Amino acid sequence: MTTSASDEGPFPQSAIETNQAGRLTDQQRTNWRSRSRGVRKTELSLAAILVIIGALVAFTAGPAKDATLKPIVGIVCFVIAALLIVRALTGGDSMTNDVRAGTVLSVDGAITKRVIRSESGGSSGDTYFLDVAGMHFHTGSAGFHAAPDAGYVRIFYLPRSKRVVNLQR
Questions:
Q1: Which residues, at least 6 apart from 60, have a Cβ–Cβ distance to it below 8 Å?
Q2: Are strands 105-120 and 123-132 parallel, antiparallel or unpaired?
Q3: For residue 70, which of 80, 60, 79 has the smallest C-alpha distance?
């Protein structure tokens, strides 16, 4: 990698030694904890939206033909919202569990990169992956662009969520 030891970009070389020991650095843990918190906030927002939709569907007047379906849809929305709330408050998602454990795994091999583009309702989003040794790892845009297009690398990643925390050529 062409970054210096002081470079704190997507693949901080100053963290390699700690990552090789199978751990996150304090700075990496702080960064990933922040990302995990963002995921949990999104889950809570989605739960709130589902509660509103469930209440509107279940309790507003509508055609008689929908009288049996509406309460079921409302209940399903409430149940999904409850599950999301429990998951967000307990940190049951894979990224949060990875950050709590602080464990980093690694794999060596040839690298390939791929992007999955999705479009919905006029907006689009890209999901970035690095593939090494037959395994698929999620990364952000900065990590995707900083990774070599080809070559032999060692990927350091969170074991449950398969998120890339570092890369070494």
A1: none
A2: antiparallel
A3: 60
| Cβ neighbours of residue 67 closer than 8 Å, sequence gap 6 or more | none
- Range in 16-30, 80-94, 120-134, 152-166 the model is least confident about: 120-134
In terms of Cβ atoms closer than 10 Å to its own Cβ (0-12, 13-18, 19+), residue 37 is middle
Residue-wise pLDDT for 92-134, tens only, equals 899 999 999 999 999 999 999 999 998 877 777 899 999 999 9
**Per-residue tokens: 99:** 């950050």
- Assigned token pair, 153: 């690398």
pLDDT in tens, 131-162: 999 999 999 999 999 999 999 999 999 999 99
Among 91, 93, 137, CA closest to 114: 137
